[in-house]
């Protein structure tokens, strides 16, 4: 009977995913990172990592893509594990901005150099500077080891074409990082070009929807490995990351998504979204056509629809 129920559930999700595909026409693929413009805007994939440790994927769920800003949740967990919560939040705030992810204006306008939260670029660059390792190569290794543990995928790496493409064109992030260093938020020992090298590789971590779904499954299960129960992320860190996903994960669409879906989620400009639901199921979505807030157009619709259909709101 359980099997039958699951088959029914799978069928319903599959139908919803196909229905949501029409929304892909209403968005457009990000082009400010030149390498991202090759994505096919009609793509919509989804994967669910369920309690019994299995992953089912739907639509174009087998496609691979880069994490982009979804990596901010991974980097935050790692920086807190490596540098400690006090150190991280001495430099980065905990409040939503209501502004776009690249916002520089807020930094200047708030009359405080401290980035408002770790999910906007200014905060994320600061967070990445606090990942453990003496050299940039060590920091990248540290990130790779962590992401391989989270996904259970030992072959996982970054897409070097996407990383190089962003590194070449990252003038906005460069400006932010130099400003933050000038303000003493980013440590004076940190070289900004090496930091951008780590940051762009972090954003270019490449994976499938199932990898994405497993990452968020772990955050939804107090940071434990689905197979061994081993603590990959300390439970309080996992909870903190999920809370940031609610308040800041979808930039200036976070409030609306909390109301309409109630699913802690984090998006990236590649069109990736991960979402965590109450029983701990992990949702990974990829659909590269974005809305005006920089979130996956069909992806957001899919989260809302799944939430309504299966009553997945945490509230
Ligand atoms: N790598 C991108 C950037 O820093 C990530 C932004 C995003 O996904 N919203 O611009």
TrEMBL record:
It comes from Salicibibacter kimchii. It catalyses: L-glutamine + H2O = L-glutamate + NH4(+). Keywords: Acetylation, Hydrolase. InterPro entries: Beta-lactam/transpept-like, Glutaminase. This is Glutaminase. GO terms for molecular function: glutaminase activity. Homotetramer. The keyword RNA-binding does not apply. Its EC number is 3.5.1.2. It comes from the Bacteria. HAMAP family: Glutaminase. The gene is glsA. GO terms for biological process: glutamate biosynthetic process; L-glutamine catabolic process. It holds the Pfam family Glutaminase. Substrate binds at residues 69, 121, 166, 173, 199, 251, 269. Belongs to the glutaminase family.
